[in-house]
Amino acid sequence: MTALLDVHRISKRFGGLMALNEVTFKVGTDEVIGLIGPNGAGKTTCFNVVSGNTSPTSGRISFDGQNIVGLKPSRIVRMGLSRTYQATSVFPDSTVLENVMRGAFTRSEDSLFGSIIGSPASGTARNKERAACMEILEQVGIAHVHDHLAGSLPYGYQRRLGVAIAFASRPKLIMMDEPAAGLNPEESQAMGALIRAMHESERASVLIVEHDMRLVMDICHRIIVLDHGELIAAGSPDEIRNNPKVIEAYLGTELVT
Fold it and tell me: In terms of residue numbers, what domain contains 158?
């Protein structure tokens, strides 16, 4: 397997708390990988370390063959690693389309100078970017509200907008932190189908943290399990579903049978 993301023996200590303890895993090209575990397992800390929001205490992280430890999150995004957050992270007073175009800005062909002076090249790039963002909104099913303020959208639409913003940067890998949080079972199932469809159409790998085990089991090729900051299992959905360590960590209550 060609590793797009290679996390090697990553540890993160907060004072006396070891939030991550020598965690190692890989995400290949064209994969959907689940990162699961009970509350406090270290999943969000892992995301924060990989995305550059916090530095690891030790270990190595490479993305697309390059070391990314110590790089700013904005630089990591420009390399092709995007991320969503547990809470909806939209600009409520901007339109839906404007939100997606902000997500696309890091990969835009427009230049700051050209944008300031209003050059023809800048206008062409802007129109191309707008069309691409509208296409993404079509894919996530909310193009019909492109001119609505993001803050006025129903919660489920805001979650879809978050997916659109993340994909707008044309990432090679997108890390999704609980994309189905707050959704009802029907909405969660639809979100899973959307993630899989976006993965297939955009050819982007996906690393997903999610508590909805049915969603994870349905869309992931492989699953990585953390417990108390340590990796306790990795494998296919069937292997994880029947792993005694995983069943014990979850007390057998959250795994889909």
Answer: 90-168
For the chain, helix, strand, coil in percent to 5 are 45, 25, 30
Do 135 and 252 reside in the same domain of the chain? no
CATH code, domain with 208: 3.40.50.300
- pLDDT grade for 88, boundaries at 50, 70 and 90: low
Q: What is the pLDDT of residues 23-72, one digit of tens each?
A: 999 999 999 999 999 989 999 999 999 999 999 999 999 999 999 999 99
In Å, how far from its chain's centre is CA 168?
A: 12
Average pLDDT for 145-166: 93
Dihedral (C-alpha) 43, 45, 49, 55: value to the nearest 10 degrees? Answer: -160
User: 117, 149, 168: which is the final residue of a domain?
Assistant: 168
85 is a domain residue: no
Question: What pTM does this model have?
Answer: 0.86
Q: Which residue has the tokens 């700013």?
A: 72
Whether residues 62 and 175 fall in one domain = yes
- 212: number of Cβ within 10 Å: 21
Instruction: Tell me the residue type at 126.
Output: R
Domain end marker among 116, 141, 168:
168
